[in-house]
Amino acid sequence: MKLSIILSTKNTETNWNALRLANLALTHGDEVNIFLLGEAVEYDQVNQEQFIIKEQVDRFLQTEKARLIACGTCMNIRDREDSKNCPKGGIEDLYSLITTSDKVLTF
Question: Which Pfam families match (predicted)?
């Protein structure tokens, strides 16, 4: 299955749960894409002792069946630089994920 997850919040618990789900899907052999939209492009700047986002992201990015894309416009608004954990993409990438995925989830 090809699963796309759209994150639009920087709420640590919500994003931690979305990433846990993404990692579970990868263990089942699924292809998983995560698109960061709006304030979600700041997801990696917020951590809580209970919800360690970095662990989940590092695990997610270890496989070729996983892809993380961030809205470039949303990043520019927030003066964010392109990085491995937050690579710039565009609305065209989001459209492509939506039209080619078997399932799309939003958080």
Answer: DsrE
